[in-house]
């Protein structure tokens, strides 16, 4: 539980998203007026690596691997699930509330996107998708659009952007380990 907690999971269930373009990370162009991130990383190869990475993406493994503490009212595989991630020290941490917007669960493509809720330092959406290509490569794709939303985040400016980049790097590392069975 962070010091900067805005709401509980139950209160966040009905909270509005903090941006209009809900679902925009699923496909197509990301919306204008935001910082964009689109990254693809080969994290493994073969059916077993795909199965491990797919299971990990729905267990919040990337977020945990980035050092975030997770509280969720359901799995990442269910649209509408609210997740409250906490970064930093247990009592002095920053809470990062999101809600799952969309899910893809196909034979060779699995993942989800979540959007920001009130209290999140940014406004926007991130998606986390694992794909098995015809050549057997397992690819982890991150797509995001965001802008700083709170006075604290805006005060941090470049530091806030650097923190997001570090989190994305840690997401990839965690998913690479998951695909390998680690």
Describe what you observe in this structure:
By secondary structure, this protein is of the alpha+beta class. Helices cover 27% and strands 36% of the residues. The protein contains five helices and seven strands. The chain has helices at residues 9-12, 47-58, 61-65, 151-156, 158-180, and strands spanning 35-45, 69-72, 82-87, 94-106, 109-116, 122-132, 137-148. It has a seven-stranded antiparallel β-sheet. Strand 6 (122-132) and strand 7 form a beta hairpin. The relative contact order is 0.25.
Cα(first) to Cα(last) distance is 28 Å
Low-confidence stretches: none
Q: Could you say which overall geometry the principal axes of the C-alpha atoms support?
A: globular
Largest sheet: 7 strands, antiparallel
Mean pLDDT: 90
Strand content: 35-45%
Output the helix-strand order.
Answer: HEHHEEEEEEHH
Annotation, overall tally of beta strands: 7
- Please count the helical segments: 5
Question: What would a concise description of this structure say?
Answer:
This protein is α+β, with helices and mostly antiparallel strands and 182 residues long. The protein has helices spanning 9-12, 47-58, 61-65, 151-156, 158-180; strands at residues 35-45, 69-72, 82-87, 94-106, 109-116, 122-132, 137-148.
């Amino acid at each position: 539980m962070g010091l900067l907690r805005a709401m509980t999971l139950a209160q966040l269930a009905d909270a509005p998203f903090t941006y209009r373009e809900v679902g925009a990370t699923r496909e197509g162009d990301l919306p204008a007026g935001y910082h964009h991130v689109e990254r693809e990383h080969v994290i493994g190869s073969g059916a077993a690596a795909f199965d491990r990475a797919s299971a990990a993406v729905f267990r919040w493994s990337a977020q945990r691997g980035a050092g975030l503490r997770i509280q969720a009212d359901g799995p990442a595989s269910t649209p509408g699930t609210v997740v409250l991630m906490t970064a930093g020290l247990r009592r002095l941490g920053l809470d990062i509330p999101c809600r799952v917007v969309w899910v893809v669960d196909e034979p060779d493509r699995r993942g989800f996107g979540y959007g920001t809720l009130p209290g999140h330092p940014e406004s926007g959406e991130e998606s986390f998708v694992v794909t098995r290509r015809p050549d057997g490569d397992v690819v982890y794709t991150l797509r995001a659009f965001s802008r700083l939303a709170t006075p604290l985040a805006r005060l941090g400016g470049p530091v806030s952007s650097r923190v997001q980049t570090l989190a994305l790097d840690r997401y990839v590392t965690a998913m690479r380990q998951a695909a390998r069975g680690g």
